[in-house]
Write a structure and sequence with these properties.
- The protein contains 18 helices and 16 strands.
- It is α+β, with helices and mostly antiparallel strands.
- The chain has a single domain, classed as Creatine Kinase, Chain A, domain 2 (2-Layer Sandwich), CATH 3.30.590.20.
- The longest helix has 22 residues.
- The N terminus and C terminus are likely disordered.
């Protein structure tokens, strides 16, 4: 919720007034935490069509899912009378500390997102992900709904449009008129995201540079949206292909992080020049009217809360916020694969030796190389070429080895990375789905019922109320 305009001490008139958004987030290493987010399209099991917000034509709605999840201790959050989210404090957590809260929220097209509490280790996130999965699969199965572990809705469905009645989305939507790729990206995609901390400005810069440099390799490891409308999309990640076309004025400035003088000041200058999508006043979202944040600040009405909200609208690639966010990963089917993401990033970012070794692999890549890799990653995946005659698969192997060693030094289990090693050895999820359905090789179309079955989560015991790690099913080693 935004601050009141009359909060004088929080008025922002120039970039330096917003500097504390970043500096107040500095953390000593001993207080580092990790977070992860997991978005998935939600469909009606029998039809493969996206679930509606409320029940229609005898089919359950998203609200039914949120209501039934409350039996597991989730608390509802409403906006203008509409149920739009759930939250709860993790076991042993402090109810007053927002870092100890888990959330279930909704994306514009009704995709369901789980946001973890901030945990000390990737291993703890692994357990939290499995716990949540047991709960939501039990509820969705009872309702006849299915979460699809894919980066883009693979089933045949009508044209995408806004489903969820959140005022934030309603204010953003007019700016997307005439931009079908943006609506598509907002309503049909699912992702995995990881957030991690920084201790000071230099640490923020170093982690951001490494993160942006290796993101195309990580994208290739997670490519999982080769299908749309039941047909081949023509690329391994239709989601990232779409996002690469979204808001080029935002994505086009990623190279600024590699400028010699990059730091908090230049990040602030960048954010001040971006257009506002919305403002929050008295808990209500209002349109940004196309103004840049600099123009808004010049009006004398900008607050620190306004800038914090604006800072969340950075492109979903690699974001510099109160935490650093790695976003360019397609959604996947199992908690093990999701947990591999924070294990990978923490093994590199939270171990000084690992970060140094990883940077040595990519430090000579210039802007042209990085831009080309960002373009190639959704298309060619692990087969794309990198400098020195190496493929992305070669670089991924090196990074996984370095991350695993970093995890060991942090006292974590490098086996958390096994799902990513499986991808390196056996091919991306996008490659596997093409092999799974022979009809695709001849320009055919896969029926919705087959796709729902393929991308569905593992089954869980009905009426499940506790947590136990599910036993693997046949083929999981190749489809995680």
């Amino acid at each position: 919720m935004g601050m009141q305009q009359d909060a004088g001490k929080d008025v922002v008139t120039c970039p330096d007034d917003a500097r504390q958004i970043y500096t107040s987030s500095f953390k000593p290493v001993k207080k580092y935490r990790l977070g992860t987010e997991w978005e998935r399209p939600l469909v009606v099991t029998d039809t493969g069509l996206p679930a509606t917000y409320v029940a229609e034509n005898g089919q359950p709605g998203i609200v039914d899912l949120l209501r039934n999840m409350q039996r597991f201790g989730w608390k509802p959050q409403y906006e203008q009378g509409n149920l739009i989210a759930l939250h709860r404090t993790v076991a042993g957590g402090n109810p007053q500390n927002p870092l100890d809260k888990e959330w279930v929220t909704l994306e514009p097209g009704g995709q369901v997102e789980f946001s973890s509490a901030a945990q000390r280790t990737a291993g703890k996130l692994h357990g939290d992900l499995h716990h949540f999965e047991q709960e939501i699969v039990a509820v969705s199965d009872e309702l006849g709904l299915t979460l699809l572990g894919a980066g883009y809705l693979p089933t045949s469905a009508p044209v995408a449009d806004l489903v969820v009645p959140k005022s934030r989305y309603q204010q953003m939507w007019p700016s997307l008129n005439g931009k079908p790729e943006s609506i598509d990206a907002g309503c049909r995609t699912g992702s995995v995201q990881v957030s991690f901390d920084y201790k000071n400005e230099q640490d923020m810069v170093e982690k951001s540079r490494l993160g942006l440099a290796i993101t195309p390799i990580v994208t290739a490891l997670f490519n999982n949206s080769a299908l749309r409308q039941g047909e081949l999309s023509g690329v391994e990640s239709w989601r990232m292909e779409r996002w690469n076309q979204y808001a080029p004025e935002r994505l086009g400035n990623l190279s600024r992080v590699f400028d010699q003088k990059f730091g908090i000041d230049s990040q602030l200058d960048y954010m001040f020049q971006l257009p506002l999508y919305f403002l929050v006043r008295n808990g209500v979202y209002v349109p940004g009217d196309g103004k840049t944040f600099a123009q808004h600040a010049a009006s004398g009405e900008a607050t620190l809360s306004d800038f914090a909200d604006h800072n969340t609208t950075q492109p979903p690639y690699f974001r510099i916020k109160k935490v650093l966010e790695a976003c360019a990963m397609d959604s996947v089917r199992t908690p093990d694969m999701v947990a591999a993401a924070p294990a990978f990033w923490s093994g590199l970012m939270y171990d000084d030796l690992s970060r140094k070794q990883a940077w040595e692999l990519v430090q000579d890549w210039d802007k042209d190389v990085r831009d080309q890799l960002r373009t190639d990653a959704p298309v060619k995946g692990l087969h794309m070429s990198t400098p020195g005659g190496r493929t992305a698969r070669d670089v991924a192997k090196d990074l996984l080895k370095i991350a695993g060693e970093g995890l060991v030094r942090r006292g974590e289990d490098p086996a958390l990375l096994q799902p990513l090693w499986d991808v390196v050895q056996n091919g991306s999820h996008a490659e596997r789905v093409v092999a799974q359905f022979g009809e695709l090789a001849h320009g055919g179309k896969v029926a919705n019922e087959k796709l729902v079955s393929y991308y569905a989560p593992d089954p869980v015991p009905r009426h499940h109320t506790g947590y136990s790690r599910p036993a693997p099913r046949q083929g999981d080693e190749l489809r995680v």
